[in-house]
UniProtKB/TrEMBL annotation:
Catalyzes the condensation of isopentenyl diphosphate (IPP) with allylic pyrophosphates generating different type of terpenoids. Signal peptide: none annotated. It comes from Endobacterium cereale. This is Isoprenyl transferase. Substrate binds at residues 19-23, 31, 35, 63-65, 67, 69, 186, 192-194. Its EC number is 2.5.1.-.
Length: 247
């Protein structure tokens, strides 16, 4: 096992977990098996992130666009998430993991959102890895909700349009208080952001991995951290210092 260079660990890694369906197709299995295997890869990623000293791990679990999948697949995905919270919450809590949920909480029915919020509440005081679960998440929707709230404040005379700055937007996004992702990984060979953390990804490093998400393991996570450590981040300037050590 090749451990990453621990001097340049990204503070925040975000992952677009892609390829569950293709992983299953390749094996002549139903897509749902791919998603089930995907949850195992989630567990691996959480452990590896904690072990490496990553402070924030964001996982794109269910996008606001995923509702358009066949009803059976949506039911499967929501069921897997429900089971993950039921089965893994105690262990995550014991491991000092703090859970944060991002995404649109409006108009969501059923027991899943309350479960996710309870997981967030239960683990609020933990000080280890922050696991950010993007659920019913879409970046444009998140930004629109911020604009809506700012417009209301402007209309109420609480805010002048010229006073709106980037920090104000940061502080109103679902990710308020969470540093921008240093590294965004997407599995399955697709090279797109797919409406994920558009605002927050302004200076992120991107890593596209050909493997399907169910095959993602600790070694791949550590390899990704190694690749990150070798990158030069400039943030529009000329510095050659890697971000994680530059702060
Ligand atoms: C992409 O594969 C994956 C998803 C749409 C969902 C990811 C969800 C999980 C891994 C399980 C639940 C998550 C947590 C945090 C417990 P795809 O179906 O788009 O694959 P394809 O592109 O090959 O069809």
């Amino acid at each position: 096992m090749v451990k990453p260079d621990l001097t340049v660990i990204p503070k925040h890694v975000a992952i677009i977990m892609d390829g569950n369906g293709r992983w299953a197709n390749q094996r002549g299995l139903p897509r749902t098996i791919g998603h089930t295997k995907g949850v195992e890869a989630v567990r691996e990623a959480v452990k590896a992130a904690g072990e490496a000293g990553v402070e924030y791990l964001t996982l794109f679990a269910f996008s606001s666009e995923n509702w358009s999948r066949p009803e059976t697949e949506v039911t499967d995905l929501l069921g897997l998430m429900r089971r993950f919270i039921r089965r893994d919450l105690a262990e995550l809590h014991r491991s000092n993991v703090r859970i944060r949920i991002i995404g649109d909480r409006r108009n969501l029915q059923g027991d899943l959102l309350p479960m996710l919020l309870e997981a967030e509440e239960t683990t609020r005081a933990n000080s280890g890895l922050t696991l950010v679960i993007a659920f019913n998440y879409g970046s444009r929707n998140e930004i629109l909700r911020v604009i809506e709230r700012l417009a209301v404040d402007v209309a109420a005379g609480l805010l002048r349009p010229e006073d709106i700055d980037a920090a104000m937007i940061d502080g109103r996004l679902d990710t308020a208080g969470i540093p921008d992702p240093d590294l965004i990984i997407r599995t399955s060979g697709e090279e797109r952001l797919s409406n994920f953390l558009l605002w927050q990804a302004a200076y992120s490093e991107f890593l596209f991995i050909p493997d399907f998400w169910p095959d993602f393991d600790r070694q791949m996570f550590f390899d990704a951290l190694k690749t990150y450590a070798a990158r030069e981040r400039r943030f529009g300037g000329l510095t050659t210092k890697p971000a994680a050590v530059a702060g």
